[in-house]
Amino acid sequence: MHRHVSAPTRFFSQLPNDIIRHPRLSANAVRLLAWQLSLPEGADEPLWKTAERAGIGKVAFQHAKRQLRAERYLFEWRRQNEHGRWQTVQLVANIPLSPDEARSAVQPAAQPTAAVPATGAPTPRPATPQPRKTPVGNTSHPPAKASSQAPPRPDTKAHAHAEALLLSLSHSAPYLAMPARKARRWAPLAAHWLERGMGTDDIRTALTAGLEQARSPLGALRWRLEHALPEPVDTPTTKPTPSSPRLSRMRECAGPHTQPLLFTPVGEEERCPACRTASAAAQAAAAPTTPGSGLHAFRAARRALAAPTPPAAT
């Protein structure tokens, strides 16, 4: 094998052979790391942008990141800036670093301060003269009074419910799986969603919709929890239904019914028409019958036939 190598005079980077010949780094991982190390001093280009410029796909990019983190060439942290927003800090190195070495590399160096003599600078004479005699008694400062108002405690039950909701998102969206520590840290944000009166299923749908195509699903979820808070759900108040004017004029029948029966009375009636009809029929059946003239004639004829016939005169 013959080789012809010309030493470049400009626009080149020095890369250790340990990276080029690393047995556990794929070609995409080596290319991603070499591209980042070749950027000029002060360039702030995230890894995903480098992968996009290098033509590395999303799946290959995630695989390369895992390899670089495992071999300690890449470190990532989540930090909160001075405006309160969370951002990801990334560090790439041309040699494997320990976690402590990586953290010390990204921390700003302390500015040197002016030297102060060990004895301190001269101070002016105090305005209050020192007592000539040692005071007798307890002269220590009394303990500060405890504040009457204790700091409000977070609603443990609501936060536990919110934490369980965040952990359950991975059931329908596996790409939103998160450790319990992160779910506990995000629980106050999810608790605000529960306070808006939405159901658990509605919240789960609103948080997971469309995140399967996101470059960082968990980052997009964190943004939604904080900035996409829905409006409170108005709970309709139930008003008493006014009674119908027709029902207000009705009365319960006093007759023998299996269930209460309402009817519209005429005047001061206390029984329904059916009860009044039945009562009138019963009274008519109980009235005694008076014999008519035909019955009297029939009885007189029977008595005449039964009477003995007188003997005929001779």
Protein described:
There is one protein chain. Helix 2 (27-37) packs across helix 4 and helix 6 crosses helix 7 (180-195). Among the domains are: 17-106, Arc Repressor Mutant, subunit A (Orthogonal Bundle), CATH 1.10.10; 156-227, no CATH class. It has helices at residues 17-20, 27-37, 47-53, 58-70, 99-106, 156-172, 180-195, 200-208, 217-227, 245-248, 273-286, 293-306; strands at 74-80, 86-92, 251-252, 262-263. It has 314 residues and is mainly α. A two-stranded antiparallel sheet has the order 1-2. It has a two-stranded antiparallel sheet with strand order 3-4. It starts with 16 loop residues before the first helix and ends in an 8-residue tail after the last helix.
Helical proportion, percent range: 40-55%
Q: What's the gyration radius in Å?
A: 50 Å
Q: What distance lies between the first and last C-alpha atoms, to the nearest angstrom?
A: 186 Å
Q: Which percent range describes the beta-strand content? A: 5-15%
Give average pLDDT, whole number: 78
Per CATH, the architecture of the domain at 17-106 is Orthogonal Bundle
How many β strands by DSSP?
Answer: 4
List the helices and strands and how they pair.
Layout: H1 17-20, H2 27-37, H3 47-53, H4 58-70, E1 74-80, E2 86-92, H5 99-106, H6 156-172, H7 180-195, H8 200-208, H9 217-227, H10 245-248, E3 251-252, E4 262-263, H11 273-286, H12 293-306
Antiparallel strand pairs: 1-2, 3-4
Helix pairs in contact: 2-4, 6-7
